[in-house]
Design brief:
mainly alpha; two-stranded antiparallel ribbon; 4 strands
Length: about 160
């Protein structure tokens, strides 16, 4: 079994993609982030399972200094489904806890860009189901490349 993971900018551009051949563990996600941004990490990284990721980073903090200054809130789409009883999640990953994410009462970032992109990406599942690994990877990488070109033109107003 496997699942594909994407790192998506808040503008919708797909920055990186990887196939996890086992589960989507927070340690694998953390390593994917570190591998994608080996120099300087982003200031903000939205993640649907931010509670578990932040908890993991804090427990392993001697190894994860690179992530200690990154704000990692749960994305808006998933924040409403997180337990009200989860004090850690409420205190450390709720997007409303970070004033730097809002300007004049409005969100600065589209935290749902990744969720919308995952919906688009998931539509290829039936097409790819019978493909061998090389064709599968090539096809999805090409679809991502073409989508990024289209989005860049859309953002630039071309």
């Amino acid at each position: 079994t496997h699942n594909d993971q994407l790192i998506v900018g808040t503008c919708g551009i797909i920055i990186a993609q990887i196939t996890f051949y086992h589960s989507e563990s927070v340690s694998a996600v953390k390593q994917f982030i570190l591998d994608t941004f080996p120099g300087k990490l982003l200031d903000v990284i939205f993640y649907d399972n931010a509670c578990q990721l932040v908890n993991h980073i804090w427990k392993e903090k001697e190894n994860d200094k690179a992530l200690m200054n990154t704000v990692i809130p749960v994305d808006a789409f998933h924040s409403c489904s997180h337990s009200e009883q989860d004090a850690f999640c409420k205190q450390f990953t709720q997007p409303g806890k970070f004033p730097e994410l809002k300007k004049d009462g409005h969100w600065v970032f589209n935290s749902s860009a990744a969720e919308l992109t995952n919906i688009w990406y998931g539509k290829f599942a039936s097409i790819c189901r019978g493909m061998h690994a090389v064709r599968y990877n090539y096809f999805l990488e090409e679809m991502v490349r073409l989508r990024n070109i289209w989005l860049e033109k859309k953002v630039d107003g071309s």
